[in-house]
């Protein structure tokens, strides 16, 4: 059990940065494309964070990141796939059908950002930050 949690500092910092980028994407989308005021944009970002917590997506993602660190084979790709798998599982838990995953994975438009797209972008940006800045 102790060996599994050796990478807890990486996992927690990675998840924190990823969630901050995710919320920032929603705040910017609501502010720029939907014309919300800044406080309303922050509420929109908070609502999306609330969905990720209530659907257990963040916790499932943390578990998959721990597994990816343990496997240590193509860790970056495994982290991205783990995040998307956690998103899919959380979507099925929240909406009780698998078709919701495809609706939430659509590309961004002026009306909606798309949770799957936002998670993908936030994980990729965090991986880039870790690879290039935090080495």
Description:
- The structure is a single chain.
- Helices cover 76% and strands 0% of the residues.
- The chain is mainly alpha-helical.
- Helix 1 crosses helix 3.
- The longest helix has 25 residues.
- The two termini are 27 Å apart.
List the helices and strands and how they pair.
Layout: H1 8-32, H2 38-54, H3 57-71, H4 75-95, H5 99-104, H6 115-133
Helix pairs in contact: 1-2, 1-3, 1-6, 3-4, 4-6
State the helical fraction.
over 70%
- Helix/strand-derived class? mainly alpha
The share of residues in extended strands comes to under 5%
Helix count from the secondary structure assignment: 6
Q: Which runs of at least 5 residues are low in confidence (pLDDT < 50)? A: none
List the helices and strands in order: HHHHHH
Mean pLDDT across every amino acid position: 84
The Rg value, from CA coordinates, equals: 15 Å
The strand count comes to 0
The biggest sheet, with number of strands, parallel, antiparallel or mixed sense and barrel status, is: none
Shape: globular
Terminal residue distance = 27 Å
Relevant terms:
135 residues; 6 helices
Give the gist of this structure:
With 135 residues, the protein is an all-alpha fold. 76% of the residues lie in helices and 0% in strands.
């Amino acid at each position: 059990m102790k060996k599994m949690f050796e990478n807890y500092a990486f996992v927690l910092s990675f998840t924190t940065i990823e969630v901050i980028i995710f919320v920032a994407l929603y705040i910017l989308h609501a502010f720029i494309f939907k014309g919300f005021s800044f406080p309303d944009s922050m509420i929109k970002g908070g609502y999306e964070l609330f969905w990720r917590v209530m659907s257990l997506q963040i916790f499932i993602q943390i578990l998959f990141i721990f597994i990816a660190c343990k496997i240590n084979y193509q860790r970056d790709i495994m982290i991205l796939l783990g995040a998307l798998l956690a998103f899919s599982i959380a979507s099925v838990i929240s909406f009780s059908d698998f078709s919701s995953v495809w609706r939430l994975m659509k590309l961004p438009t002026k009306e909606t950002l798309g949770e799957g797209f936002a998670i993908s972008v936030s994980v990729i940006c965090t991986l880039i930050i870790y690879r290039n800045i935090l080495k």
